[in-house]
């Protein structure tokens, strides 16, 4: 990962991209750095992710609520002010939002599984 100089982010100036779910839509605003991705993500009401994700994330719920479903059947319900963290390849998970949610999601090389621990 390279050094990132101080910068403020005006999210209103970051383009939104649309990502279709199994149902509903996810809107991403993304900042990409070497080895680091920072996203402001909104899931529409009725959103169900269209895939099981293996990627690690640090995720913080800014507004609304959603559930993170693990492929093993466990479900974690998160509301405004709650977070989760997971490293790459440690779970298969997908997001579901009945009423819509706004999230800050950070991922990158620092979440790669360290097989030497």
UniProtKB/TrEMBL annotation:
NCBIfam families: DHCW_cupin. This is DHCW motif cupin fold protein. It comes from Pedobacter planticolens.
């Amino acid at each position: 990962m390279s050094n990132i100089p101080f910068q403020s982010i005006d999210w209103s100036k970051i383009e939104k991209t649309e990502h279709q779910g199994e149902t509903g839509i996810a809107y991403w605003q993304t900042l990409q750095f070497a080895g680091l991705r920072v996203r402001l993500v909104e899931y529409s009401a009725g959103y169900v992710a269209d895939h099981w994700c293996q990627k690690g994330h640090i995720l913080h719920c800014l507004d609304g609520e959603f559930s993170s479903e693990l492929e093993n059947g466990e479900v974690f319900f998160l509301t405004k002010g709650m977070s989760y963290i997971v490293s790459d390849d440690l779970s298969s998970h997908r997001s579901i939002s009945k009423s819509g949610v706004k999230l800050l999601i950070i991922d990158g090389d620092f979440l790669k599984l360290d097989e030497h621990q």
